[in-house]
Write a structure and sequence with these properties.
The protein is of the alpha+beta class. The chain is built from 15 helices and 49 strands. Among the domains are: about 70 residues, Spasmolytic Protein, domain 1 (Irregular); about 230 residues, Immunoglobulin-like (Sandwich); about 110 residues, Sandwich (Immunoglobulin-like). Strand 47 and strand 48 form a beta hairpin. The protein is globular and about 85 Å long. About 55% of the residues are buried. It comes from Clavelina lepadiformis.
């Protein structure tokens, strides 16, 4: 809350005290609502006063507090919609709603008649929509399932529709827990202001991003904003992406999700009832309720709507290196050579905007970057890859015929237009004055591929980094300002940074092929990802690799995300974990932050700790800004290089496991990196932890997040755990316990969960070389001596390997001192060798180990660790037993 708002409240309270009364616009009985259940009737930035509240027919009762409790709130009898007609359909119900009495016209045109669709899409997924009954409205143009027939009973939910004062109530059938209840406040449906509220079953609420905040969302009058923006991450800001999904964990450990498919500017207000209110400035109310009942299942149900994540190329899981400020291709090349000489793993080299000629997309500087094609050729010869940045702003000031990106766009009318002139709207980005491709245009794929293909013929890049695609604009709206209309100045503007929808971007009235920017602004990054993915597939005939700054639901279909311009601070190091697991919830598992921070100068200690954490980002890239000091591993002392090499080698050794997690996410729609509560939703402590996270269900990562710390206070949920780093194999058995773990500067604490089997591989300085090495299995039994795991393997780069059955999939099981594999699918042309098995915490005295009935030598080490060598082709099932 701002100081001005607090001052307003104090002044008004003094006034009320002086006169000994307060104003209530409605009768006291209908205003007798507990403070925590008040739903704000005056959400504008300027504080409410009696007259504002009275004009809206709402209750006005000031509260002396600094926690944003609304003074103006809806009375219990506020006019809403009634459900006047309902009919059965093949998919569920359809209904007709009409407004009981017209509301005050403070938000413009109210829609009197609404249509309701309730679609029983699956037993675990309910879909409902509220639309204008008489006129079409903008709806988000992404593909979602079309369901014409209701799922078969039994459903996991019960549905109740309130008629007189419309409301929708959804309960979990197994427990009776209310998951969604919109009767707590009136339904509001104006042309440019839509509002609906719901109760929440608990305060354990997650998601709702993009956010640079704690993982667990504060429900004490917390307001979140959604409107893609070029905004360096900080708290209480609307950032690069728009992901209106929340996951709530109920008191009994069940989890559910609620997804609003709406791309207009919006905000969400959470309150301690607990309850939540959605406000939108356009589109329709299009909700999905996901029944879980586990957090992982909620994500899978969510991605069954928006699309499951793509399977990234194997090389993209290696280490990436970049900076803005290499200044030349030779300087870039020197870093690559130094990394090789130091034997520090690196798979991908990047360039930021300084490689371009005059900051023009699809060009490179012919002087400073004259050897760029040679650098890329050298990378390819050494099994490495190259990625460069592309911004959506296309310069419109180059001489005619000299810049095809502009000339072709004009020829095909591909740019976003100024609604006043129907000519390309002009902004300012890095090259100066620019225009912007309309990524919703039906001809965008041909145009975009042509530009990328021409550049690829000169510099054969392997992936594309798309930045500034909110879209970012260095002037407000356009170089010729914005018109004064309801798109630019709607009746209500959510509390977005900059206080205007056009701030740092285009005029909201800008005209796309079919839409206004007002509706599709936050889709720009998603549709650029889609066009870039199609182009890369056609150009390279291999899996695309795309990292985007701006994202929207279904972005994971096309690429990954990095968390933008974070700062080289311990605070941002810690906050990156919540961002990491949030985007896994959003169906974008290929995610990471700029290792060591983007802006500001890092310290050697901070960069070491960040490299240790960043080695376990699914997308692992070190990148920093033009004015910051160099922070590549080879920019530091030999001792620091040794530590960074060690942590990257650890990552590379675990890539078979990480790649298998990406396969699982691609096949099932689940997560790769996850918060502890995903695996332990009944654990009240795990529900609050965002300083640790997991890879899959097997690997617990507990990074050092404090300066000068040499230990970590890590939480271990109930079960068996084993040290992977530090005292290798040392067991921990816990009912749920905080434990101090030694973490000297050279070490990041990693632990394997009992009951899991992790495939690993001897590391090399590139993934191509690592993939030639034999594999090992790390077997971590649970308390019953049982463990399970899997391995997915393919050539790492081809398209449609799953559809073409060109992959290996092996399931591993440990039970009764017997380790077996089951080959679900085998690769005919590649022999992948298992050469070592490590089994932790073997309690039975071992006298013999038999691999496929052949006796093998073995060792029993400290903590009863059993190790033995073998030579097994993983394309064929095996059985190993000991006695």
């Amino acid at each position: 809350m701002g100081a001005l708002h607090i001052l307003w409240k104090l002044q008004l309270i003094l006034c009320f005290t002086q006169f000994g009364k307060y104003y209530v616009s409605a009768s006291d009985s209908v205003c007798d609502i507990k403070t925590k259940w008040r739903v704000d009737c005056y959400p504008e930035t300027v504080p409410s006063v009696e007259q504002n509240c009275e004009s809206r027919g709402c209750c006005y009762k000031p509260v002396m507090s600094n926690d944003n409790v609304p003074w103006c709130y809806y009375p219990s009898n506020y006019a809403s919609y009634s459900l006047s007609k309902i009919s059965n359909t093949s998919y569920g119900y359809t209904g007709l709603l009409n407004i009981q009495s017209p509301s005050p016209k403070h938000y413009g045109k109210e829609i009197s008649w609404l249509s309701l669709d309730v679609i029983f899409e699956r037993k675990d997924r309910l879909h409902f929509r509220l639309r204008d009954a008489n006129n079409s409205r903008y709806e988000v143009p992404i593909s979602t399932p079309i369901v014409k027939k209701a799922a078969d009973y039994p459903f996991m939910y019960d549905l109740k529709l309130e008629h007189d004062k419309f409301g929708i109530i959804i309960k979990r059938k197994s427990s009776g827990t209310v998951l969604f209840n919109s009767t707590i406040a009136p339904l509001i449906y104006f042309d440019q202001f839509l509002q609906i509220s719901t109760s929440l079953p608990s305060t354990n609420v997650y998601g709702l991003g993009e956010r640079h905040e704690d993982l667990l969302i504060d429900t004490n009058w917390k307001r979140l904003k959604f409107w893609a923006r070029d905004q360096p991450p900080h708290e209480n800001a609307n950032l690069y992406g728009d992901h209106p999904l929340y996951i709530a964990v109920e008191d009994d450990g069940n989890a559910h999700g609620v997804f609003l498919l709406n791309s207009n500017a919006k905000e969400i207000e959470l309150q301690p009832a607990p309850a939540l209110t959605w406000r939108m400035v356009g589109g329709i109310m299009d909700f999905y309720v996901l029944l879980g009942p586990t957090p992982e299942m909620v994500v899978q149900q969510y991605t069954s709507i928006i699309g499951k994540p793509f399977l990234p190329p194997y090389w993209s899981l290696g280490f990436h290196l970049c900076r803005w400020g290499y200044e030349s291709s030779n300087n870039t090349w020197d870093i690559v050579k130094k990394m090789r000489a130091a034997s520090i793993p690196q798979d991908v080299q990047w360039n930021d905007i300084d490689y371009m000629s005059k900051y023009l997309d699809f060009t490179y500087d012919p002087v400073a970057f004259d050897t760029l094609p040679n650098l890329v050729s050298d990378l390819h010869q050494n099994n490495q890859h190259y990625v460069m940045i592309i911004d959506p702003g296309i310069s419109d000031t180059q001489s005619s015929g000299s810049y095809s990106a502009y000339d072709d766009g004009i020829a095909t009318n591909i740019f976003i237009n100024d609604s006043r002139t129907l000519k390309p709207i002009e902004g300012v980005v890095w090259p100066g004055k620019t225009v912007f491709p309309d990524f919703t245009h039906p001809a965008i794929d041909v145009y975009w591929e042509k530009q990328l293909r021409m550049y690829h013929s000169k510099v054969p890049f392997d992936g594309v980094w798309i930045d500034m695609n909110e879209p970012s604009n260095f002037v407000h709206g356009s170089t010729s300002s914005c018109p004064n209309n309801l798109y630019e100045n709607p009746p209500y503007v959510p509390h977005v940074n900059g206080h205007s929808l056009a701030d740092r971007t285009l005029c909201s009235s800008s005209k796309h092929f079919k839409y206004y920017h007002y509706d599709v602004h936050s889709l720009t990054g998603l549709f650029e990802m889609k066009a870039t993915s199609k182009a890369l597939i056609n150009i390279r005939k291999k899996r695309p690799f795309i990292i985007s700054r701006s994202t929207f639901p279904s972005a994971g279909l096309y690429g990954g995300h990095w968390s933008g311009d974070i700062v080289s601070t311990w605070h941002d190091l810690k906050q990156s974990i919540a961002s990491l697991v949030n985007f896994n919830m959003f169906g974008v598992p290929l995610v990471g932050a700029d290792i060591c921070g983007f802006s500001g100068d890092t310290t050697e200690e901070l960069c070491i700790r960040w490299m240790q954490l960043g080695s376990f980002y699914p997308f692992s890239r070190n990148h920093n800004a033009l004015t910051s000091s160099g922070q590549a591993p080879v920019d530091f002392s030999q001792e620091t290089q040794d530590i960074m090499r060690k942590t990257l080698n650890l990552r590379y050794s675990l890539l078979p496991y990480l790649y298998s997690l990406f396969f699982s996410a691609h096949a099932t729609g689940g997560t790769v990196a996850k918060a502890l509560f995903f695996e332990f939703p009944l654990d009240k402590i795990a529900l609050k932890i965002d300083t640790q996270f997991m890879w899959g269900n097997a690997l617990l990562i507990s990074p050092v997040l404090e300066e000068k710390a040499s230990s970590v206070r890590a939480y271990f949920p109930k079960g068996n755990w084993y040290y992977l780093t530090g005292v290798f194999g040392k067991p921990i058995k816990t009912e749920g316990e905080w434990i101090n773990i030694d973490a000297p500067l050279s070490n990041i604490p990693l632990h394997i969960r009992g009951g899991c089997i992790i495939p690993s591989q001897y590391p090399a300085i590139t993934t191509a070389e690592s993939r030639r090495n034999p594999l090992s299995l790390l077997v971590a039994p649970d308390e019953f001596g049982i463990a399970k795991g899997e391995l997915y393997w393919d050539d790492g780069d081809s398209l449609d390997t799953l559809e073409s059955n060109l992959f290996m999939h092996v399931l591993f099981t440990l039970k009764d001192n017997k380790l077996t594999s089951h080959v679900v699918s085998a690769l005919r042309d590649e022999e992948l060798v298992l050469s070592k098995v490590i089994v932790m915490n073997v309690h039975t005295p071992i006298t013999a180990v038999y691999v496929n009935n052949i006796r093998e030598t073995f060792q029993i080490g400290e903590f009863n660790i059993l190790q033995f060598g073998c030579s097994l082709n993983l394309s064929k099932s095996f059985h190993i037993k000991w006695q």
